[in-house]
Design brief:
38% of the residues lie in helices and 17% in strands. By secondary structure, the chain is of the alpha/beta class.
Length: 309
Amino acid sequence: MKPSAFLAIFAGLALAMTPAPALAQDFIFPAAFKTQEVPTNGTALHVRIGGKGPAVLLLHGYGETGDMWAPLARDLMRDHTVIVPDLRGVGLSARPDTGYDKKTQGADMAGMLDALKIDKVDLVTHDIGNMVGYAFAAQNRARVKRFILMDAPLPGVGPWEEILKNPLLWHFRFGGPDMERLVAGRERIYLDRFWNEFSATPAKFSEASRQHYAKLYAAPGAMHAGFAQFAAFDQDAIDDKAFLAQGKLTMPVLAIGGEKSFGPTMATVMRFAASEVSQGVIPNSGHWLMEEQPEATVRMVRDFLDGKR
């Protein structure tokens, strides 16, 4: 038995990990998607764009890039314009020295949408993408029509202080030059820890995906930027509390948790920050919803965006 970090936080239960055959991960976007580098807010983001219709913005989390959204993007492009950036410092986006607080990265998204001449969006986010998405939505409330968040907390919101006490989340405080030296050349080992411990079934995070993301995170400056995402959490908590003081978000929100991870607690967290929150739980999934249960996750997102939830 191996504990899942998020399950341990909220349920204090052990998570059984049953070996399963490795699955080929779908992180390739349809050929109809175009990529471009979009200058915004003093940096440049690598952005994938495809489809036609109302805009939907997909924001990834740590240990992945925008590539994680390929199955959802393929579904949504039938009737949406789908915009998928790599966050500041991650994947193929530029890696500036500063600006990894989520308020700044929320401004990255606003500037990117301005450059693409897109006003209003539906917003779908995971992990650190939740934090960037919340900062964007809180600063641009009229631009977000619907907001879906997946399986990660918001700094300073709800039970944040209790989350910080859990020793399994040691990576929140792991960073700095010495930590970068420890991980250099061992990026795959470090990232395997996330993919294994936060999964209900680790084999569902395929070997192909692990190799793909490990190579991207091993690029010069990538781990430094990744550590900076976590190092900014103290400032993020200050900023999020200031956003809360301005009032709760009023757009419809769907808070999705993996059954073996955040589960219904994702909705509990979001009810501190938004006034119209629906709850979603993906069965037989840990933290990596798009890898572990892609069909169920795509269906839940689609139903909410289509007004069926």
